[in-house]
Amino acid sequence: MAMAAGSNRGVKSEIHVTPLVDVVLVLLIIFMVVTPMLQRGKDVRLPKAQKIEEDNGGKSDPIIVSITPDKKLYVERDEVEDAAFQERIRSELTTTPNRAILLKGDESLTYGDIRKVMNLARKGGAKGVGLGVEELKAKK
């Protein structure tokens, strides 16, 4: 609120938009910086699927394994080789035995490329591997 400086003394109710715009712009910048950090694993184009299984509440946070189009293997954001991948999975599952594994493979990869990583995960002690897909939205 501001006080009038003329002959009409009293409370003058005006909305000051400038502080509101400043706050909104700061929040926008914060969200623009934080949002890319929320994605886990490497950025890959996931294959599309019409039906997907619903997550059953997720007992624990899954281990994100990504395979890029150039067939590089990542656990979370760390690039690993085949032998190091098995050891990493084994050590992760030792600390949290029932932790799920989510495999995000690029849609340009062959079934054999994905199967190879699934076999490596199984040799590392994984009981099962979930596949990451993008759900097709039904057109109405």
Blueprint of the fold:
Layout: E1 2-3, E2 11-12, H1 17-38, E3 48-49, E4 63-67, E5 73-75, E6 78-80, H2 82-95, E7 101-105, H3 111-123, E8 130-131, E9 134-135
Parallel strand pairs: 3-9, 4-7, 7-8
Antiparallel strand pairs: 1-2, 4-5, 5-6
Provide a quick synopsis of the model.
With 140 residues, this protein is α/β, with parallel strands linked by helices. The protein has helices spanning 17-38, 82-95, 111-123, and strands at residues 2-3, 11-12, 48-49, 63-67, 73-75, 78-80, 101-105, 130-131, 134-135. The radius of gyration is 25 Å and the shape is elongated.
Question: Structural class of the helices, strands and pairings?
Answer: alpha/beta
CATH class of the largest domain: Alpha Beta
Reported for the largest beta sheet, the result is: 5 strands, mixed
Over the alpha carbons, how many angstroms does the gyration radius reach? 25 Å
Q: Topology as H/E string?
A: EEHEEEEHEHEE
Give the count of structural domains. Answer: 2
* Number of alpha- plus pi-helical segments: 3
